[in-house]
Specification:
Blueprint (H helix, E strand, L loop, with lengths): L1 H30 L13 E4 L9 E6 L5 E11 L8 E7 L1 H11 L4 E2 L5 E2 L4 E4 L5 E8 L1 H4 L4 E10 L5 E2 L5 E9 L4 E10 L12 E2 L9 E7 L2 E6 L5 E2 L1 E4 L6 E4 L4 E5 L6 E6 L9 E4 L7 E3 L4 E9 L6 E11 L2
Parallel strand pairs: 1-10, 2-11, 5-9
Antiparallel strand pairs: 1-3, 3-8, 4-7, 4-9, 6-8, 9-11, 12-13, 12-14, 12-24, 14-15, 15-16, 15-19, 17-18, 19-20, 21-23, 22-23, 23-24
């Protein structure tokens, strides 16, 4: 939505600039009514707010739950000079072809949510009189959709007012359905690594992971009801095990690693850490450090304490000690 507003503001700025420039060059013609222009303020369009399907998706992150959850999947917007003095009805459809096309164009693997995983009470969205927006409401159980990259493709097919047109560029949208468990969020990270000094990796020297300025470089992203994957947003923009070179001289990371943390939902104990990446010839793997018995998520401070081990063919174990402090919701 912000991108859309920026785009429109840019167009407006360009229009003003072009008109101002034309005025400077043709002031005399305008004054003598030899050059004129008109602006049609009567155009009215309905559209789906957010990036177009060819450029992105709307992400709906839901809190993890076993109960039915209803949310606004897409915003149906009236693009007009003024809101209407009467309500309009906008009909949409679930369009599976959008997801196939999007995956093909972007190398993604979204799956059309099966009809058993969600319900839509009404495919006709109402934009009330005097308003610009209406909402398509979708109901699902977050626990059912948590473990797949589910999405919905939505397309506008009709509008009740003959004076309102359907947008050509923004009539379709893909809604990615994300789910968040209680460990999900953006965290700061302080950690140390031990055991790989011979390979140029910082040894037994605590450090704070570089951040984007406010200590929020690491995300713990829900991968199941009780599991989260560590995502670095500082240098890699990927699921990866981060590290420092000798003496904490420079940030680095280990390829073919995607640390996944698994918790006990009742005790919040960290029960395992596994590598969720496709292994390569190094065969890197993670396991919980059984010598440290208090790896856990502390509810009061919203802090994850994690002691685990990374192994690799032909090398000794590398010991990793993390303290992740919750900063804000993702």
């Amino acid at each position: 939505m912000k991108n859309m507003l920026k785009f429109r503001n840019l167009l407006t700025a360009l229009l003003v600039f072009s008109l101002a420039g034309a005025g400077c060059l043709k002031d005399k013609d305008v004054d003598e009514n030899k050059a004129q222009f008109t602006i049609d303020n009567n155009n009215k369009l309905v559209e789906l707010l957010g990036p177009a399907p060819s450029t992105g998706t709307v992400v709906q992150n839901l809190e993890f739950s076993d109960k039915d959850t209803t949310f606004n999947a897409v915003v149906v917007n009236l693009a007009a000079d003024q809101p209407l003095d009467h309500e309009i009805k906008v009909t949409v459809k679930v369009d599976t072809a959008l997801i196939t096309a999007y995956n093909s164009a972007n190398g993604t693997a979204f799956v059309q949510a099966p009809t058993t995983a969600y319900s839509i009470t009404n495919l006709v969205v109402t934009i009330p009189a005097g308003k610009r927006e209406g909402y398509l409401r979708v109901t699902t159980k977050p626990s059912v959709v948590a473990n797949r990259d589910y999405a919905l493709g939505i397309t506008i097919t009709a509008v009740s007012d003959a004076g309102v047109k359907i947008s050509g560029n923004f009539k379709s949208q893909i809604v990615s359905i994300g789910v968040k468990n209680k460990y999900d969020g953006i965290y700061s990270l302080r950690f140390k690594t031990v055991g790989w000094s011979a390979y140029g990796i910082s040894d037994n020297l605590p450090a704070t992971w570089p951040s984007n300025g406010d200590g929020t470089s690491i995300s713990m992203i829900t991968s199941g009801s009780n599991s989260n994957k560590l995502f670095d947003d500082y240098g890699f923009g990927a699921y990866i095990q981060v590290a420092f070179t000798t003496g904490n001289a420079a940030p680095t990371g280990f390829g073919a690693t995607e640390p996944k943390f698994v918790f006990d939902l009742v005790s919040n104990k960290l029960t395992s850490v596994v590598n969720d990446a496709v292994p390569d010839s190094r065969n890197r793997a993670f396991r919980i450090n059984s010598a440290i018995t208090d790896s856990r998520y502390d509810v009061g401070s919203k802090t994850i304490y994690a002691a685990y081990i990374m192994s690799q063919t032909g090398r000794p174990d590398q010991f990793i000690y993390d303290t992740l402090v919750f900063k804000k919701a993702r």
